[in-house]
Amino acid sequence: ILNKDNRNFLFEFELLSFKDFISILNLILVYPFKTLRLSQKKEINEDVMFNNELINDISSVEFDAFSRYMFGKNIAKFNTIKKIYSWSEFQVIERSFNYGIRTNNQHIKLIACQFYLNYETYFNTFVDDIDYDMQSSPHEVLVNGNYYILDRRKISYKNGVALRYKNIFDFDKQQDINNQLTLLMGSYITVDTKYMLESVSVFDSILFKNHPAVDIKVYGKLNKNIKIVKNDIYKLFQTTTLAIGSASGTCVEAIACGISVIIIASVNNLTANPLVEYGKGKIWDIAFSKDDIEILYNQLLEYRRNNIEEIKQIASWYKDNFFVEPIEENIVKVFELDKD
Q1: What is the value of pTM for the model shown?
Q2: Backbone dihedral region of 166: left (phi > 0), alpha (psi from -120 to 50 degrees) or beta?
Q3: Cα separation, 131 vs 128, whole angstroms
């Protein structure tokens, strides 16, 4: 794809010299000792937990964390760069890159793009003022919709544009309550998806849309009541009244399209639920056991039958608060293209 593009692209390791690799190796050697200086005196249980995590952190460190710092440090030498836009989940490699820029160049503005559906359990994605003070944060965070805008004193949170979710705004269908197809939406967390597949035996027939990043073979032979579908998710939404999922932003997309949703709680971890309290018990709910699924299924469908206008209102609320339409006007505004 890049070879067919006439523009020039600069890759990370093109800016790293042999001297930089020596510096990276030095950082790797020094890092454990620098980290252990933060150890606490073990006066309370929290101190013990903190010290354990320090050691775990040392064992988990990767080369990219240091190479991205050197990459940022070298980028900071370019006086012609005024702004840097980057995809952001605010992980270690991004913090390292930001630190490399900000400690070496005060004139470059870092703008983080979080154009995805987030989860409260994804603690690393939220940028705090303390991160700004440590010079590991961006200056500005652009998010997918109003709901994700956080109140910070030193970091500016603003609406971005939902580039990945254009189909939300093109989707228009009148739900037919008599067409009660049920869709099971696979997650990239295979353990949770396996549990979901085992938990839907109560249904005579259910459609299964696998996560595109997961090989369907990892689930082995599926029950006869489960039919694998490969259609586009929005085409499936046309014939879906209720969807079941876990750790999937597609659950928000489904609700924004007026489809009821059951979230399956994680088997052995924090449940990555992208939904919020609004509409719970009406358009969505969470199942903590296999028995809950059938109960919630009947309850949610019953509520739809008697409150279809409220269902549409809740769907509209999710659409308005979790997405910014990716039209040309919004894209130009977000990336300040008119100023350039």
Answers
A1: 0.89
A2: alpha
A3: 5
